[in-house]
Amino acid sequence: MTDRKAFTPEEWRTLAQTPVEVMYGVVVASNGGLRRELKTIRRTLRHTDEFEPESELVTHLAGFVRVNADRVRRDAETHDFTRAVAIARAHDYCREASGIVRARATAAERAEYAQFVRWCAERVADAGVEGGLLGLGGRRISPAEREFIDAIGETLAIADGERETSE
Fold it and tell me: How many domains does the chain have?
C-alpha cells in the first residue's frame, strides 16, 4: 500500500489538485454558472468520503482534499476559466498525475485514483440540470459534460498505459 510519504510535496499537491482541475473543466465544458458550480465543487470535495476508497493512497488523498475544500473559492480567483485553457489544464494535470501514480503506486491504487478523479467530475456534472424549460425535461449531465468526462477517462487510461492510441 502506498501512502502520502511515498510522494514529494509537489507530487502530492498535483495528485490533490487534479480532481479540482477536472471539476473546473466540467464547469467550463457545460458553460455553467461559475459561482453555483464552485459551491458544487466545494461540496463534492467536502464529501469525498462518500467515494468510499479502499486504498490507503486514495483514503489519504480524499481526506487531504476534504480538509482543503474551502480553498477552492480563493484559488478560483486566480484561474483562467477560458474553456480551451481550463480543459487543456485538466488534461495536463491528469497526464502528470497518472505519471506520478504509475511510478509510485500499485495497479489497484492507480485504477482507484482514476475512478476517484472521474467520480469527482461526475458529481459536479450531475449537480445541475441542463436544458429543458423551467427545470423540466433537462438532462442531469449535458452532452458536453459527458464528452469531457469521457475524454478525461481516456487521458487517465492512456497516460497510465492501459490503452493504446489509435494515431
Answer: 1
What is the rounded distance in angstroms from the CA atom of residue 158 to the CA atom of residue 152?
Answer: 10
The pLDDT tens digits of the residues spanning 86-98 come to 999 999 999 999 9
What is the distance between the alpha carbons of residues 125 and 42, in angstroms, rounded to a whole number? 13
Average pLDDT (43-66) is 92
54 inside domain: yes
Measure the N-to-C terminal CA separation of the chain; round to a whole number of Å.
35
Q: Please report whether residue 135 resides in a domain.
A: yes
Instruction: Quote the pLDDT of residue 37.
Output: 78
Residue 164 lies in a domain: no
Highest mean pLDDT among 64-68, 114-118, 156-160: 114-118
Full domain range(s) for residue 85? 4-159
**Which DSSP symbol is given to 128?**
S
